[in-house]
Write a structure and sequence with these properties.
Layout (H helix, E strand, L loop, with lengths): L38 H11 L4 E10 L2 E10 L6 H9 L2 H8 L2 H10 L3 H15 L20
Antiparallel strand pairs: 1-2
Helix pairs in contact: 2-3
Length: 150
């Protein structure tokens, strides 16, 4: 036997998978849109400035009886997957936050342990910065014209 260290077996006939690249969060920038800009214009600028879809926002929580505010990086609402929305609708806030926050921000979320009012403020701030609503869509609307019955 040889004293050289063993090399791991690699099947060269089979394509090797590469590890997924780490997402880049440092490109998060705030929009420069005018204060009176429409929400659609703001959302368009935010998306152009942040191709990764992440925004910086604040999350508050109570630590040792004191309210603490921490800056977190979260995925803007327009980039949430349908599965993320289902988790939110089911009320699993921890899984939802794990889906939209960066790993460091998720640690801050668990440390802060925000209440529902603080999460509501976080969602409102995220929505305002993204220029998109996080609420329910208007859905299908009834026609203004009446249909004739036969």
């Amino acid at each position: 036997m040889s004293d050289s260290p063993m090399q791991p077996y690699v099947n060269l006939d089979r394509p090797q998978s590469l590890p997924a690249p780490e997402p880049r969060y440092e490109s998060v920038r705030e929009p420069l849109a005018a204060e009176g800009a429409s929400p659609a214009a703001l959302a368009q600028e935010v998306e152009a400035l942040n191709p990764t879809g992440y925004l910086r926002t604040e999350l508050a929580g109570t630590v040792d009886g004191e309210t603490v505010v921490h800056e977190v990086v979260a995925l803007m609402p327009g980039k949430w997957k349908a599965s993320t929305m289902r988790v939110l609708q089911q009320g699993d806030m921890d899984a939802f936050m794990a889906a939209i926050l960066t790993p460091d921000s998720l640690d801050a979320y668990f440390d802060l342990d925000p209440d529902q009012d603080q999460i509501g403020d976080f969602m409102a701030d995220l929505s305002a910065k993204a220029g998109e609503s996080v609420g329910k869509s208007g859905g299908r609307r009834k026609s203004v014209t009446r249909m004739r019955r036969k």
